[in-house]
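Take a look at this chain, tokens included, and explain the fold to me:
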Amino acid sequence: MLLLLPTIARRATTSVICRRFYHNSIPFDTKPFPFTRFEPCCPSTTDATAPNGYIPCQNHPIPNVLGKKIDMTDDMTRAPTLRHLVACIGPDALEWSRSKVEAVDGILQTMQNAENIWLKTHTPTQQEDQLVLTTAAEKPSSSEAHKTDILLFPEFKKITTAPNTIDPNLYQVLSSIWQDPHKSLPNVEWQDIEADTVILVCTHARRDLRCGKIGPLIVDEFNRVIEQRSLQGKVEVWGTSHFGGHKWAGNLIIHQRGLGGQLYGNVRQCHVADIVDRHILHGKVIKEIWRGQVTPATV
């Protein structure tokens, strides 16, 4: 694995510096996070604490019936994965009407079927399961109409394909991943993702209302803070499909160049400004709400 040295590029705005961090291990923040799991910034003085520990927030309300169903005590860490593929299907795609996005005749189902066909005639080098996470995102494709962008992490690359077809470039990349996800990807015709940081928040309401209601509130708060910090273009945030652990809503993945993809849970709108400051601007992973690594910095 290629190891890169810390902090090799800096991009200045009028008010902040957005850095790219490169680490061969996860750089957990040594400074305590100001919130415990799902803790509000301004606790309600009129509502009693729920049996699960949920306390409403005066400044950032969520439906109380959902807050009372959040798990704030069980271990929420998960086994690490190696790669993340994200299909940009837009906010109005039919996939969002199903609890399983791959159940719809679209690019995710096409990719799944192609892998099953590939497996009939090939034997993967690596027999490990769950090394690759595949999700959909509400991000519209940036290319021409009737095309779908597939984002590849940790490479921060983008390949465009037809919605129900796997174009040759994409198939070459997918077959390489199916054969051995530990290997570097083949050099094909692709584009760089413009942003340095991509935040994916689970908003999959058809799968579970906890993420379905709390997730969009978190997306809105990230967008507010991104604009406040003048980070437009460098940081983007999108709703995404289920990736596990709805009982630990809100759930989100932050992909950042040089930091890899990190998964957080039990996040509230109250936490967003501190997550931006610590993780995105200073390259520190927050242990208190960390669920695991989605991708390393490099493969």
Observations:
- The first strand starts at residue 9 and ends at 12.
- The two ends are 6 Å apart (CA to CA).
- Residues 23 and 270 are 28 Å apart (CA to CA).
- The chain has a mean pLDDT of 90.
